[in-house]
Amino acid sequence: MQNTASSTKVERPWSIVTRLAVSYTISASMLLFVAMLILYGVVLQHINANDNLFLSDTVRAVRADLPGKRANSDQLLADEVPPGTTDYFIRVLDSRTKQVVAERPEMGDRLPVSSFPPPPPGDRIPTEGIEYKSPSGSPFLLMSASAILDPDSPRSVIVQAAQDRSDDIEFRENFGKLLLAVLLGGIASSAAIAFLVAKRALRPLEDMATATEKVQASRLDQRLGYGRWPKELTALAAGFDQMLARLEESFERLSQFSADLAHELRTPIQNLRGEAEVALTRTRTAAEYREVIELSIDEYQRLSSMIDSLLFLARAENAETRISRTDFNVGPEIDTILDFYDAAAREQAITLTREGDARLRADPMLFRRALSNLVSNALQHTPRGGRIQVSAVAGNDRTIRIRVQDTGCGISQEHLPRIFNRFYRADAARSSSSAGTGLGLAIVKSIMELHGGSVSAESEVATGTTITLAFSGEPLSATQDR
């Protein structure tokens, strides 16, 4: 049985050039058709008006000449229709008996009396005749009017006039064919012009596509530039250049991250390998092997912590990541974190204090993790006898700011913009400790981005550093200090 999915024909969408050309051709064809139709109608109306006017003038002239002639005159219609005339015909009927008084010999059965319309009442001369087709198929225009014959013995007669319209019909057919040919030629010309114009108009897109093909992973510095493109493509070129700039930045960050990750993983792995190789150089006692394993636990813990941090950052960068927000007071949470680090702070004679309180809507677990990273980082870089203060400040703009201020060694200004990058180390003073993974501040930044907040840093060398977390929240009616 043949697979229906494979037998289904996939239709390729039309190109933009084809769509524009077809749209333009259809529009031009409709305009041409309407114009030709109007022109055809105007010409036909003009021809019909001229025929009716000619026939009406003929009837008027015949009626004006009849009173001066007698009914039994053989030349009654001789002056009205010159010899050899085949375009129009005249017949005179008695009004009462409907007998033919005089007529053109050619009329006969071609134009019977009954085929003519009745004359209008009184002395009126009709302005429009009626269409008639003879038994032989010849078209005629017919008209009738009342007249007076022989003034010596006035006699009422009917003048019947007919005009052969064969030439008009032939002209109408030829004119229609001409217009049809012009219409078809116009459609073909419109299609060709539309295709050429669309092709030329879209040439900048082809140039842009050619330029984008030059962009590769190794040449992300390429830019389209938006000064040389048409007005309609300027925004597209600018957006593409901005996208390339973001890609270049992301690629550089990814490359740097890969290099940093390899460097960070290499150190503990080399330590573990070195310890294992030393342990295997000779036979050792169980106590010595136990000591090697105990020394390896710290490196294992560092690797585990680094992997957990990287997994957290990966999840935080996922656009579909959702956090569980609840309302809580930040004061008790800050106290909990400070109590956890109190023992370590006492060993270094560092004072931990908390100031202020506020009510915050956030994820409590993520809040504690961010604050814990900041306090831990401050402890690592605050000298003995220093001070770390965590404060909660509620601003007038309904923003809750959590500040972690230390009296540590500080960070120089050129490093501040990059301290929240992964594995970034400001200087030797801040990378001397092996306890850190270089991901703490990067995790803090990711947590703040998940909450729609921000993190900023202020620092002065040899004076201290202040890290500020900005959340949206509600201030308490009264603050409590620890």
Please render the helix and strand layout as text.
Elements (H helix, E strand, L loop, with lengths): L3 H4 L8 H50 L22 E7 L5 E4 L26 E4 L5 E11 L5 E10 L1 H36 L1 H11 L17 H50 L5 H31 L9 E4 H11 L1 H6 L3 E5 L3 E4 L1 H17 L6 E8 L4 E8 L21 H4 L8 H11 L3 E7 L3 E11 L8
Parallel strand pairs: 7-9
Antiparallel strand pairs: 1-2, 1-5, 3-4, 4-5, 6-8, 8-12, 9-10, 10-12, 11-12
Helix pairs in contact: 2-3, 5-6, 6-11, 7-9, 9-11
Characterization of this structure:
- The chain is α+β, with helices and mostly antiparallel strands.
- The protein has three domains: about 20-170; about 230-315, Helix Hairpins (Orthogonal Bundle), CATH 1.10.287; about 325-475, Histidine kinase-like ATPase, C-terminal domain (Heat Shock Protein 90).
- The chain contains eleven helices and twelve strands.
- α5 (about 230-280) packs antiparallel against α6 (about 285-315), α6 (about 285-315) packs parallel to α11 (about 440-450) and α7 packs across α9 (about 365-380).
- The chain starts with a helix and ends in an 8-residue tail after the last strand.
Q: What would you say about this model in short?
A:
With 482 residues, this protein is α+β, with helices and mostly antiparallel strands. The protein has eleven helices and twelve strands.
Main attributes?
single chain, 482 residues, alpha+beta, Helix Hairpins, Heat Shock Protein 90, 3 domains, seven-stranded mixed sheet, five-stranded antiparallel sheet, 11 helices, 12 strands, 17% strand, disordered C terminus
